[in-house]
Specification:
By secondary structure, the chain is of the alpha+beta class. The protein contains twelve helices and 13 strands. It has a single domain, classed as Beta-lactamase. Helix 3 packs parallel to helix 8. The radius of gyration is 20 Å and the shape is globular.
Length: 382
Amino acid sequence: MRSPARKLLSFAVALGLLATASPVQATTGRDYADRRLQSGIDALVARPDGPPGAIAVIQRGDRILIFRAGVSNLKTGAPMRPWMHMRIASTAKAYSGAVALSLVQDGVMSLDDTVGELLPWTNPDWHPVTLAQALHHTSGIPDFTGSSAFVDAFLASRHDAPSPRKLLSYVRHQDLRFTPDSEYEYSNSDNIVVGLMVKAATGERYERSLSQLVTDPLQLTGTSLPRGDAMPQPFMRGYQWDDGDPPHDVTHFNAAGWAWASGGIVSTPLDQNRFIRGYVGRRLFDADTQDAQFAFVEGGSEPTGPGQNRAGLAIFRYRTRCGVMLGHTGNTFGFTQFFAATRSGRRSAVVAMTRQITPQSLPDLYVDVRDVLVRAVCSATA
């Protein structure tokens, strides 16, 4: 028996609301952009060092297109599907922004709330940092993932994550790296701070606020923030390998709690698409709050997104040859992620790949990844 999600997708296909890429001869600029995206994904997966699978969800108005290549499971050969679960890596930072900005609109929090007011147990040097600065990556709070204490703890207990508060303890004795707002530096600690500030302001676990303020209102039924390493069925598998070695499955390499609000969310390509359209399209907070969010500074997402990057509050602006979109990227063991939408929220693009690919780890391959991201933007805006 097919799941309700699959039945709904079949119904959408029948109505013409969701379609797969067509091999017909290109006759319009939109056809050309779509064919370019499919050919880019095909070429990326065909590379010897390319991801085993890649999938893109493009939505223009009410019409959704799915582009895919490769497989979701090297053992079974199962194809990539848009309802499959995956680790969304640092695109989860946009979700923490969505929670915090929803609370700002409701008056529960303020962008001027400080770490000292809400998290007085932290290093006193961090206390002047505001919620806005944490969301902006201009806080100067050191990144816990760069700490040798974190690395040692992670390797000793990959499948048993510590508490979110413990994640910050790995850098608790380190002072700010710079005066807040004087520089930009992407830091995973920032979104742990945001999640803990949300908890302090609401008296509720961050996971509950995430559900009440984001996943439930947007009907993200395939999205969750687990603590362990389990994945809901069905899921695509993530792979890593070194040159000359066969790919090995790293889907369950570590518990999601090691990244928590900074990158622990599990979702699906279709849910990611629904989220970014609602996030940018002001379904979660009002125009005044979004105007504050769109105070862009020099700074890029990790890995670098398409075009010219600038950083807002838990969002990045990508200026490309095909227009401007707003979203986020992410990478973690076995996965590389991207999503973005136009400011209206009416046109969107999601790209997911089943290998961790960054400019630092695989620079030549990432050139092609970035080209695919640009093609996805061009398809969405065609």
